[in-house]
Design a protein that fits this description.
The complex is a heterotrimer.
Chain A lengths: L1 H28 L16 H11 L53 H4 L3 H9 L1 H4 L12 E5 L21 E5 L1 H12 L12
Antiparallel strand pairs in A: 1-2
Chain B lengths: L3 H5 L15 H33 L12 H32 L7 H23 L13 H25 L6 H26 L5 H32 L9 H14 L14 H36 L3 H23 L2 H7 L3 H31 L6 H34 L5 H38 L4 H14 L1
Helix pairs in contact in B: 2-3, 2-4, 2-12, 2-14, 3-4, 3-5, 3-7, 3-12, 4-5, 5-6, 6-7, 7-9, 7-12, 8-9, 9-10, 10-12, 12-13, 13-14
Chain C lengths: L1 H5 L21 H20 L25 H12 L2 H12 L1 H4 L17 H4 L2 H10 L1 E7 L2 E7 L8 H12 L11 H11 L6 E2 L9
Parallel strand pairs in C: 1-3
Antiparallel strand pairs in C: 1-2
Helix pairs in contact in C: 4-8, 7-9, 8-9
Classes of the chains: A mainly alpha, B mainly alpha, C mainly alpha.
C-alpha cells in the first residue's frame, strides 16, 4: 500500500515540478516588472484585431516571430532583425506567435523591412505576384469584390491581379485584411532595449 | 497452438493463437473506440493530404477560408493525436484492464456514452479550428470550451480504469501497467491546467510559449509514448502477466518519465528565454537518450525472445518497426537538441521529420498492431484477404520511411542553405520544394494503406462468417506461403 | 531453490518465462554511454546555464556557439545621448511616436473618438492626475470641451520610463496653446510609486479621487 502511494505521489510530484519550472516560474520572472525594462508601446485597435487574424489563419504555421542571437543561427545575418528578441518584445501579447517551423521567412521585424501596405495586400491576395513560384498560399478570402463608385478606391488592389474581374468592380481588402496588415506593419522589434535595472 | 493452421497463418490468422478472453462488456466499448479511432485517422490523413496538395499547388481550394493551409494543418494534427491516438490508446487501456478483470465491466454503458461525447467534442473542436478559433498552433490548439469538454469526458471515461489500476496495484510490478498509469494520470492534469490558463488568460507573454511547449512535450512523451511503450511491454510480457523486474526496464521508465517533464525547453533555443531554461531542456533531452536506450535494450531482448517463441506474425512486425522508430526518434531528437546542431536545423524540416517518425512511425504503428490484434480477437474469424493486410502493412511501412527520408533530407538542405545568409529565401524555398512534394506523395501512400485497412474492416463487419470462405482462404494460404 | 522461487511455473518447460533470464544482461557499453551522457548533462547544468539567473540570455561559450566579441560599446553610447537632450524635444519626439496616432499631431484628437489634449483640464490641471492617467490608461465616459468621448486608452507605465513620461507631460502641457509648468522625472517616479501598482485602466468615475 505504501509503495503504491509513494509511486503515485512521485508521479504527481514530477508532473508538478515540470509544470512549475516551465509554466509558473517563467510567468513570474519573465514578465518585466513595471519599473524594469521598457516595453514596446501597447497594441491597440486594429493591431490587436490583426494579431487575432494572424493567429486564426495559421500564419504561424509557416512563419516564426523570433530572432535568434548571432551565435545560435543565421537570423541576424539574414537581416531578419538587428538583435535577438527578448521577453519584453512580447510583453503585450497574450499569445506570442513564436512559431514552430520556418517554411517562410521570419516576421519579427517585417514592419521595418516593408512599409508599404499595398505590397502586403498584393502579397496576401496573390503571393505569386511577388514571389513567383512560392508556396505561400493566397488569402483571397480576405478580400471582397465591390462595385467601384466613381473613382478607384486608393486601397483597392491593382485590377491586373484578377483577369476575370468584371468591369466597374474592384478588389477591396476586408476589415480583417486591413487589420492583419496593420498588425504586420506594427511588427518592429528593432528598437534598442535597455539593460534591466537591478 | 498445436493447430497447424494457426501456426502457418502468418497474416490471416494473424497469430491470435491464444485469444484473450475479454468480456463483452469490455469488448463493445473497446471496439467502439477503435472504430472511432480509424474514422479519425482517415479524417486526419485526408487533411494532411490536402495540406500536402496545397504545398504543391498553393491556390488549391484557396477561396475557402476554413480550408486554408494553417487551419487544416492544425486540424490534421489535432484530429490525429486526439482522435486516432487517444481513442486508440484508451481502447487499449480498457483492454488491458479488462484482460485481467474477474468481473464484467459494470460501467460499460457510461463508458460508451462518454466515449461518444468525447468523439463529439473532438468533432466540435475540429470545426472550431476550421473556422479559426485557434488559441495556439500545437497540441494545445483547442479553444478553451473544447478543452473543458475533453477534460470532462476523459475523466468520466477513465475514472474507473484508473481506480482499477490503483486498487490492483499491478503498476508496481508490471511495466505495461506502470506506463499506462503515467499516461492516464498526465492527461487530466495537463489539460486541466491548460484550460484554466486559457480561460482566464493567466499566462501571457513569452511564458505562453514555454507553457505551450511544456504541453506539447508532455503530450508526446507523457501520453503517446507511455501508451505506446505500454503496448510494447504488454506484448512482450505475454498473456500470463509474466512480469519481470528487469533493472533496465525500470531504469528506462524512471529516466524517461523524469526527463520528459523537462525536455520541452530544448525547442526554445534561441527564443527569448534565459539560458537556464534552455540549458535545462537540452540536458533533459540528452538524458532522455539514455532512458530510451535503456528501454531499447530491455525491450529488444524481450521482443526477440517473444518473437522466437511465437513466430513472426503481423503484430510482431508492427511492433518491431514501431520499436525502432521510437529509438531513432528519441535519439535523433536528443542529437538535434545540441546547440551546435540546432543552430542549423532548428525550425527546419529535420525537426518535423523526427516528430513525424515519432507519431506516425512509432505510435501509429504500435496502435495499428494493437488494433489489429484486438480486431482479430473480436471477429474470431480469419481475415478475408491476406493481400489487403500485406498491402496495408507494406504501404504504411514504405510511406512512413519515405516520408521520414524526404523530410529529413529536405530539412538538411533547408538548414544548410539558410545558414548561407547570401542566398535569398526564395532560393531556399525552391530547393526544398521537391522534397516536400516527395513527402506529400509518401503521405498519399500512408492514406492509401489506411484506406485499404478500413475497407477490409468494413468487409469484416459486413460479411457473415462463411464456412466455405474460410476453407477457400486456407487453400489460398497454403498456396501463398 | 532459487530457480523455483523465481519461477512458479511447473518445471519441465524447456523455456524459462520470457524476459526472466535476459534481464541480467546489461551490455557493458551501456555503462560507458551512461557515464558519457551523465557527464555531459552535469556539465551543461553546471556551466552552461548562465548561473541559473533569469536575466542571462546570451552566452558565447563553445557550447552555445562561439562568437567573436565586438559590440558592447555601442549600447553604452546610446543612453547618455538621450539624457542630454532638451525635454521639450524628447517630448515631441515621443509624442509623435506614441500618442499622435490617436490624439493627432495637432493635439486636437478626433471628434467622437479621441479627446483633444489641447485646452483640456486633465492636461493642464493636476500633474498627479495626468500622470495617473498616462501611467494606467483611461476608460469610460468623458466630457471635454463640451464633447463626449467614450473610449479606452491603454496605460503607458511599462512602455515609457520616468524621463520620457516627464518629457511627454512637459510637452503636452506646453504645446497647442497649453501653458503649464515643467514636470520632472523625479515627480513621475513618485507618481509611479503611488499609482503604478494598479492593474488595468482608470475609470473616468475614479478620476475625481485622483490627484490630491
Amino acid at each position: 500500500m505504501i509503495a503504491r502511494i509513494v509511486w503515485v505521489l512521485g508521479i504527481f510530484l514530477c508532473f508538478l515540478f515540470g509544470w512549475f519550472v516551465y509554466v509558473i516560474i517563467p510567468s513570474q520572472v519573465l514578465d518585466p516588472s513595471p519599473e524594469g525594462e521598457e516595453t514596446p508601446p501597447p497594441n491597440f485597435g486594429l493591431v490587436e484585431v490583426g494579431q487575432q487574424v494572424y493567429g486564426a489563419n495559421g500564419c504561424s504555421g509557416c512563419h516564426t516571430q523570433l530572432v535568434r542571437p548571432a551565435n545560435m543561427g543565421s537570423d541576424i545575418a539574414r537581416g531578419w532583425g538587428n538583435r535577438r528578441t527578448l521577453p519584453v518584445d512580447y510583453y503585450h501579447e497574450t499569445n506570442p506567435f513564436l512559431g514552430i517551423v520556418r517554411i517562410g521567412p521570419d516576421l519579427s521585424n517585417i514592419g521595418k523591412r516593408k512599409k508599404d501596405s499595398s505590397w502586403f495586400y498584393i502579397l496576401l491576395y496573390e503571393p505569386n505576384q511577388i514571389f513567383p513560384g512560392t508556396i505561400m498560399p493566397p488569402y483571397k478570402y480576405l478580400f471582397r469584390k465591390v462595385r467601384a463608385e466613381g473613382k478607384r478606391n486608393p486601397q483597392a488592389l491593382p485590377p491586373e491581379l484578377d483577369r476575370t474581374l468584371p468591369n466597374g468592380m474592384q478588389i477591396m481588402p476586408s476589415p480583417e485584411a486591413v487589420a492583419l496588415v496593420a498588425y504586420l506593419l506594427s511588427l518592429d522589434r528593432s528598437y534598442p532595449t535597455q539593460p534591466k535595472k537591478q | 497452438m498445436s493447430n497447424p493452421m494457426v501456426e502457418s497463418q502468418e497474416w490471416i490468422g494473424s497469430g491470435v493463437s491464444r485469444p484473450v478472453s475479454l468480456d463483452r462488456s469490455f469488448f463493445i466499448p473497446v471496439i467502439f473506440m477503435l472504430v472511432a479511432a480509424f474514422f479519425w485517422l482517415l479524417v486526419s490523413m485526408g487533411f494532411a493530404l490536402l495540406g500536402a496538395g496545397k504545398i504543391v499547388i498553393p491556390s488549391l481550394l484557396g477561396s475557402w477560408g476554413w480550408l486554408t493551409f494553417g487551419r487544416i494543418g492544425l486540424a490534421s494534427f489535432l484530429v490525429f493525436s486526439y482522435g486516432w491516438g487517444m481513442n486508440g490508446g484508451l481502447a487499449y487501456a480498457l483492454y488491458l484492464i479488462g484482460k485481467n478483470a474477474q468481473e464484467p465491466f459494470r460501467g460499460s454503458g457510461y463508458f460508451l456514452c462518454s466515449a461518444l461525447f468525447w468523439n463529439l467534442s473532438i468533432f466540435i473542436g475540429m470545426m472550431a479550428v476550421l473556422i479559426g478559433e485557434i488559441p495556439s498552433l500545437s497540441w494545445a490548439g483547442w479553444p478553451d470550451f473544447v478543452l473543458f469538454l475533453l477534460l470532462l469526458n476523459y475523466s468520466l471515461m477513465n475514472y474507473w480504469i484508473v481506480k482499477k489500476l490503483l486498487v490492483s496495484g499491478s503498476f508496481l510490478r508490471s511495466l505495461s501497467h506502470s506506463y499506462l498509469l503515467i499516461a492516464l494520470l498526465w492527461f487530466p492534469w495537463a489539460i486541466g491546467s491548460l484550460f484554466i490558463f486559457f480561460h482566464w488568460l493567466v499566462i501571457r507573454g513569452v511564458s505562453f510559449a514555454s507553457m505551450e511547449w511544456w504541453f506539447n512535450e508532455g503530450f508526446l512523451h507523457l501520453w503517446l509514448a507511455p501508451v505506446g511503450l505500454s503496448m510494447l511491454y504488454d506484448y512482450v510480457e505475454g498473456r500470463n502477466g509474466q512480469r519481470s523486474s528487469s533493472f533496465l526496464g525500470w531504469l528506462g521508465l524512471i529516466l524517461f518519465f523524469l526527463c520528459s517533464n523537462f525536455a520541452s525547453a530544448s525547442h526554445l533555443i534561441g527564443a527569448p528565454f534565459p539560458l537556464w531554461i534552455v540549458g535545462l531542456g537540452i540536458a533533459a533531452r540528452i538524458l532522455l537518450i539514455l532512458g530510451a536506450v535503456a528501454i531499447g535494450i530491455d525491450l529488444l531482448q524481450r521482443l526477440k525472445k517473444r518473437i522466437q517463441a511465437n513466430k513472426q506474425n503481423i503484430f510482431s512486425r508492427y511492433f518491431l518497426i514501431a520499436f525502432y522508430c521510437f529509438l531513432i526518434a528519441i535519439v535523433g531528437d536528443g542529437c538535434i537538441a545540441m546547440p551546435f546542431v540546432s543552430r542549423l536545423v532548428h525550425f527546419s524540416f529535420v525537426e518535423i521529420a523526427f516528430l513525424v517518425l515519432f507519431i506516425y512511425g512509432f505510435y501509429s504503428f504500435v496502435l495499428m498492431g494493437m488494433a489489429h490484434y484486438l480486431y482479430s480477437n473480436f471477429f474470431r474469424k480469419p481475415w478475408l484477404s491476406e493481400t489487403f493486410l500485406k498491402i496495408t502493412f507494406w504501404t504504411n511501412m514504405y510511406g512512413i520511411s519515405f516520408l521520414f527520408v524526404f523530410l529529413f533530407l529536405g530539412g538538411i538542405v533547408q538548414s544548410v542553405e539558410l545558414e548561407n545568409a547570401e542566398l535569398p529565401f526564395s532560393q531556399v524555398v525552391e530547393s526544398v520544394l521537391p522534397y516536400l512534394r516527395g513527402a506529400g506523395m509518401s503521405a498519399t501512400l500512408i492514406l492509401f494503406s489506411q484506406l485499404t485497412y478500413c475497407f477490409l474492416l468494413l468487409l469484416m463487419f459486413l460479411m457473415p462468417v462463411e464456412k466455405e470462405g474460410i476453407e477457400k482462404n486456407e487453400k489460398n494460404l497454403s498456396r501463398s506461403i | 531453490m532459487r530457480e523455483n522461487e523465481k519461477n512458479p511455473q511447473p518445471t519441465g518447460i524447456p523455456q524459462p518465462p520470457l524476459g526472466e533470464e535476459s534481464n541480467r544482461k546489461i551490455p557493458s557499453w551501456f555503462w560507458l554511454l551512461s557515464f558519457i551522457i551523465l557527464s555531459v548533462v552535469v556539465y551543461i547544468l553546471v556551466f552552461e546555464t548562465g548561473g541559473w539567473r533569469s536575466s542571462v540570455f546570451d552566452a558565447t561559450s563553445l557550447f552555445w556557439g562561439y562568437m567573436p566579441k565586438e559590440k558592447p560599446k555601442e549600447k553604452v553610447l546610446q543612453k547618455p545621448q538621450a539624457v542630454a537632450a532638451d525635454p521639450m524635444a524628447i517630448g515631441q519626439e515621443q509624442y509623435q511616436a506614441m500618442c499622435a496616432a490617436c490624439h493627432q499631431p495637432s493635439g486636437m484628437g478626433m471628434a467622437g473618438q479621441y479627446p483633444p489634449l489641447a485646452n483640456s483640464e486633465y492636461v493642464i490641471g493636476s500633474k498627479a492626475r495626468l500622470a495617473a492617467i498616462l501611467l494606467n490608461g483611461l476608460s469610460g465616459e468623458l466630457k471635454i470641451n463640451g464633447q463626449n468621448y467614450n473610449g479606452v486608452m491603454p496605460g503607458w507605465k511599462t512602455a515609457l520610463n520616468d524621463e520620457k513620461l516627464a518629457a511627454i507631460m512637459t510637452f503636452i502641457r506646453n504645446s497647442w496653446g497649453n501653458h503649464g509648468d515643467k514636470v520632472e522625472a523625479s515627480e513621475v517616479k513618485q507618481f509611479r510609486e503611488k499609482y503604478g501598482k494598479k492593474e488595468g485602466a482608470w475609470k473616468t468615475t475614479e478620476l475625481s479621487t485622483l490627484g490630491e
